[in-house]
Amino acid sequence: MKDADDATLILEFKRSGQLDYLAALYQRYMNLVYGVCLRYFDEEASKDAVMQIFEELISKLKQHEVQNFKSWLHVLTRNYCLMKLRSMKNKEGREISMEGLPIMENDSFGHHENGVSMETHLQGMEKCLETLPEEQKRSVDLFYLKEKSYREVADITGYEMKKVKSYIQNGKRNLKICMEQQDA
Amino acid sequence: MNHHVDPELIRRYLAGELDNKAMHALEKQALDDPFLAEALDGYAERKPDQRFHLADLNKRLEMRVQDREEKRGMVFRLNYRWMAAAGVLLLVGISMIWILQRGPDNEIAMHQKATNISDSSITDTLQYYNREEPVAWGKATPEKPLTVSIPSDTGFLPAKEGRISAALAADQPMASAMMRREDTVHQPSPLLPLSDSLKGSMAGVAVTRPVEAVAQAEAMEEKNPVAYAPMVTTRLIQGRVKASNDKDGMPGATVSIEGTGTGAITDSDGNFAIRVADTTKNLKLVVAMVGFDSKKMDLRQKENNLDIVLNQQEKALSEGVVSGYSKSKKVASVYQPPIPVAGYERYKEYLSKNVNYPASAAAGNVTGRVKVSFRVLPDGTLEDFKITRRLQPDCDAEALRVVKEGPEWSPASDGKATRVQVDVHFPPK
User: pLDDT-based confidence at B6, cuts 50/70/90?
Assistant: First the structure.
């Protein structure tokens, strides 16, 4: 069960209804689910949420055809948290501004699985790199081409850690847009 | 495929225990994996060491899986119990019917002495002394009173009138007896079914003209409508509504009696109270709240204090809500980029088996990979092939060939032409 891939486990679960398969699958991502929950709730509430999401999985997996389980689970997790947060409003819980949450971009789904890596895009896109604002260009260059970690980038450039992260994220997005224009 | 990320790696990353290279690797992975990125953000807001909680989670998951087996057993036992209960009820019901059908018969036939079975309420018990009318009863001893007792909440109510009418049927008015009856009978009931039951129950007694008797009884009823007004007592139904996943009461839920305008809304603690006429039979309570499955329940006679639990609606949690936060997609249709029909694993297998290593490359000792990019149209055809990473002209051509001749692709789930890229490897021989 440990070596089977996600799709196989889902299939087995659907066929047999045995929770073991689902649990084996869920275990792979449980730390991610938990991490996402931590953004919204404290530790105890997050753990409850993780278990609740497992319950939802049991029913939802039977209804939906899921191809990319990981992405799907991510969306499910986030939706669960937001719903929960909403129902907790006026009770306890941390205030989270919905604005600040990144909206899922379609093309980032399954990105990590289809063999298209950012690195190769970059190599075909040095021109695009030139069009980026200075901070983004430097950060992206150091991160992707020189393979420095966020911490090192921050040390080298003197930018704040948090800024570095957003420079890289934005730079990456801008590059992608730039490349899609080239392609078209 | 990079599905799971070691929790330990995350912990060490956040605790700053990783070297720069490993940090970079994880950061890069997170940039391509929004799930991981969001999880990292979550962890970053807490103490880096979440090992205790993760271990706890694993344990809970394990328990949950085992739990299922036990629950299954319980459900079965429960059903079994219910079946037994239903069986007992059925038995009681049948014997009640039997007793009721036979009971009065015997009483009349044997001319038992007055024994009030269900006492207290006048409407339940009807007494008739036939002092002045020996004729109707044939050999009956005039001094002995005849008692007909019918428990009020059975379906046999009508028989009451019937028997009296039968008794009266004999012949003559018996004014005084009739008057007494007017005083005591309060419940109006249809007369029709009774002539039957009466024929049976009066066997052995001289019954002369039952139909006329019925008519008489009817006439009597008309004379005295006031006497039939139901006695109104009220019943207070109260209780508390809560959600299945919450121990506090649920404010604002509506509780109503089905088919009536009577109802209430729960207060801030989830409590409600409704007053209904006591005579109303078969009360059904309907409890509803937005976002929860409404519940309909039968109220038994003595059940005036209720704890009601509502279950959260499954449906409301999924589709509808998601659209509020993400303009683009519903949960039910998570975007799926184009993939090879047989899956990536098989596709890679195909590539590695079918790539011919060009002689020129072998001579030059060229190894590495070529990246081929192309568009998958909504009908699954491939077009616009480009080489996005070159290696060596012959290798490039071979890579292009092998992809072009390769297995089919299924299009992106949003029905748009979408560009994908694959790696064709020319490994060292």
Answer: confident
* Whole-angstrom distance, CA of residue B287 vs CA of residue B267: 14
- Check pLDDT > 70 for residue B235: yes
For residue A123, name the pLDDT band (cuts at 50, 70, 90). Answer: low
Can you tell me the distance from the alpha carbon of A32 to that of A29, in angstroms, rounded to the nearest whole number? 5
Q: What is the CATH number of domain A115-183?
A: 1.10.10.10
In a shared domain, residues B269 and B169: no
Burial (CB count within 10 angstroms: exposed 0-12, middle 13-18, buried 19+), residue B56:
middle
B117 and B220 both lie in a single domain: yes
The predicted-structure confidence for A158-168, as pLDDT tens digits, reads as follows 888 888 888 88
- DSSP string computed for A56-110: HHHHHHHHS--SSHHHHHHHHHHHHHHHHHHHHTTSSS----GGGSPPPPGGGTT
Chain A residue numbers with beta carbons less than 8 Å from the beta carbon of B53 are: 34, 43, 46-47
| Chain B contact set for A36 (CB, 8 A) | 35, 38-39, 42
Please tell me whether residues B198 and B279 are part of one structural domain.
no
- Name the DSSP class of B6: -
Same domain for B218 and B253: no
**How is domain A6-101 classified at the architecture level of CATH?**
Orthogonal Bundle (1.10)
CA distance A139 to A173: 13
Count of domains in chain B?
A: 4
Which of A19, A51, A70 comes nearest B35 by C-beta?
A70
pLDDT at A113 over 50: no
The C-alpha angle B59, B62, B63, rounded to 5 degrees, equals 90
How do residues B239-288 score in pLDDT, each as one tens digit? Answer: 888 888 777 788 888 888 887 777 888 888 888 888 877 766 677 888 88
Q: Which range of residues forms the domain containing residue B14?
A: 7-49
